[in-house]
Amino acid sequence: MLKNQGLDISVAIIADDMSSAKEISLALRKLNIFAYHYQNLEEYWVSTHLQIPDLTIIDVTKMSQGNLQFASHPLVVQEKLNYAFFSKDSTKFLLKSTLALKPIGYLSLDVTLDFTLKQLITHMISEKENTQTIAELSQRVERLKARNQKIISERSEAEEFKAQINQIQNFSNSVFKLMERTDFQNALIQSLSEWVDIDAFGIYELSRDGQRLISPESTAKNYNPLPSLFLGHKSQSSIEAFAKEMAGQVALDLFEMTPIVLEIKGLKTEVLLYLSFKSEYLINYPWELLEKEISRLYQSSKISHQAPKLAGQFLPMWEALDYMDKLGQDPQSGVKVLVLDLSPLLRVATSKTSNKFYWSTFYNEFFLQLSNVISPSTKLSVQGPWEITFFVEDSLLEKDSFALQAFVKKYSYWKYFQDQSSILPEDIHPTLRITPASSSLYLRGFEKNHKETVSQPTQGLRRRGGQLTV
User: Fold this and answer.
1) Cα–Cα distances in Å, from 387 out to 81, 193, 198, 243, 339?
2) pLDDT one-digit tens code per residue, 412-446
């Protein structure tokens, strides 16, 4: 075998004249190639089923054997075999039988053998290197194609997600704008009726007496009023799990396509929104983001009704994030971002299930009193029940931050628990911190701080054992 830059050249000799075969083998050994020797065409024919040599050197007298014809070998016919003929002076006249074939060379058993053989092998090595290089380049091209395809796919997914985020933002802006002249509920219904890919939708909310789930009346396009549901006992300020199951069963029966459900939250679930669609792009839609954004609009609506003094200072979540980035790009903005984290209070309230916490009463009274603490020019945004962000002018930063710290430390959180005595030793005070003016940094910190407390929306409904599971 010839070792040349990692290439192995395999050579087969077909000859029954041992002296001729030996002479060719010795010439090949000078080139570090060890050949396989076959005494007849039949042996060679069988061997090519197992391994195809890089070069076949055939005695011109062995062109045929019985019914076997070298010219009829499948590899010769398909031009996939490299071969050369050798002859002696006494057999040169037989070379004319090879003229119809396409050998890569001719060898003579004379003084030219070594030189001719070396030239032939050198040519073969070059060809094999080129073939190997082409194969490697082809593999590299395929890898690059696969990588480019992956990049294109990922970019496509990123563009799709970006488009979905923009769609959610536009939807939020639509609802927010409508809320300037109507209530949250009507603004939401009107905006959903204009979403062309939503085939049907419906809403359940808790009645004022807490004993029924009711559906708003509306003639908006694609809106499906849902039948009232008597719950059997009174629910306190939020839609409880058993009521969600009852509502889900009704929605599953009434909608043509199985709907998804978004839980619109104040502090807990207060509205159930069912959406039915056929469009494929909505199957993997970021519904959890839409749920959170609608919940923020709902919370802003409640606050604007309960605390009119703060209404003009509230920013929707999307506007708040944009405002952060705007401030971050302007070192001379003169505005700082404060974050009030309500997690300590929420942890205590949600962990003590046997000690009822009056969420709605706390929420309304807290913000009513907060309106008397911050400056009129300070803007704020509600980030779910977990955090409130404040945008404070530099000249008012010391005043507002001290006022907020004093307010949250002195506020009587304990009075919103049914059993007030068990809360006394607990650390339930919200914390205030300053954060960089950057939406991405804020959202990363938000996700890290509240990863275990942020719930995900229900993605679908199905029956199991006669009961609705979500």
Assistant:
1) 76, 31, 31, 28, 7
2) 776 677 665 565 556 788 999 888 888 888 888 88
